[in-house]
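ARCHIVE CARD
SHELF: 3
SLOT: left
DATA:
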Amino acid sequence: MEWMAWTVPTALFFSAVVLMLIGMTIWQVASPTLERRGFLPIATTRGDRLFIGLLTSAYIHLAWLGLTDYNLWWASAISLLWIIVLMRWG
């Protein structure tokens, strides 16, 4: 994979995504989810909130790379906090 410019934060981000998908699959099989309303303007399930969280986390990382010169770890920390908030109260 030398042709790809993988950094440690990028590899950890995608590894975390894979682990979250595995964890959510196990959680869904063990305890099926029901739709609920939080601060999002639509009724969502756990899977919906995870998808929205992962998508916005990718946008956070892209914006971070494009707009700042700061370390990518900050974008990862913001994304983690965002997913926690979204999964709990979204």
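SLOT: right
DATA:
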Amino acid sequence: MRDRRAIAAAPLAALALCAVVCLARANAQGIDKQDFNQVENGRYLATVGDCAACHTLPGSGHEFAGGRPIETPFGTLFAPNITPDPQTGIGAWTDDEFVNALTKGTGRHGMRLYPAMPYTYFTRLTRDDALAIRAYLNTVPAVHNPVKADQLPFPLNMRWIMAVWDELFFRPQAFRPDPHKSAQWNRGAYLAQGLAHCGLCHTPKNFLGADNNGRRLQGYNLQGWFAPNITNDTRQGLGSWSVDDIAAYLKTGHNQITTTTGLMSETLNLSTSHMRDDDLKAIAVYLKDQPGQNNEPAAAPDPSLMKKGTQIYADECSGCHKPDGSGIPALFPMLKGSPAVQQTDPTSLLRVVLRGARSAGTADAPTASSMPEFGWILSDEDVAAVVTYIRNAWGNTAPQVNAGDVHRARQAFVERSD
């Protein structure tokens, strides 16, 4: 009888020992699935980092399961599965591998990552914040979803090349608070420079896809839009916006000056609209402190083009945007003094005129106003005239747009499916 009890007890003892070992291992790694505060903090941080935007394929019904195509100037990448599936996700990754993926650009077994994964920004994360994100991802449903290979041409499809890129352009660096700045500024810097990775879209890139830090946050053309200048530049940037204007824009997609469209709409819907008000204000305080170039006014446009644009604007645009370009706050964007229309690159304005656009709708501002497309009714010359007028009326100043610019943009937009 004693032997039978010993035999019967052996599996229980083994299970108990296994549980103790697993618990000890989990604690050693810094992850505790029962720590609600850590998981909830990780959920919030994953939202700030906009992880779902890349790692969730729209319409799939599987959050974080990967497979979404990521367009780059060098080819198409497909975001990996980051659910806790052990075969196709990150379930078998160690905590160190996960932290390294975020902060050092290396994944499972040291595999080099492409900088479409913004490790060049996430490098500023603290280990505690990185592990909190891991703790949250451990709680999402595991999805078995093998993601197809990246579609990059040779030799870019050879990941070891990224070691050379990293050596040239990447310096791992933890965030260091500036002792001369306020706690609010430093919080905004930690988020904007790191997890929110603002510069990934808003900083121009060199021919190898690395940030041109000499023009940091001064705007970049990507995926058929121009991510605008978000420095404190008085004309093209946020110089005319208050801290509250910036925070309201990030929270609701609207403020008294403009509304959100294009790529920023997705960022707002998935990320910034769910952020805490104090964090949004911190980011706004930080951005207001980023100096712009304050470029000289552009050369005066062709008077005949302005005259033609004046008439087209009166006929097609003034009903919503008002004759003086003042718009309707939180509904139809202000054009007078708008940094969006004065960017050096007119891509976004051309896209909105040719193809139309819809602003973001959020819980705090549910009315998503829309702009009809005019590409079917206006010729290239007409669009060039009205866009040039908008960019140079009411005190605005920006380079003239020519019919050839419109023609090239029209063709490029036709080729895009989004």
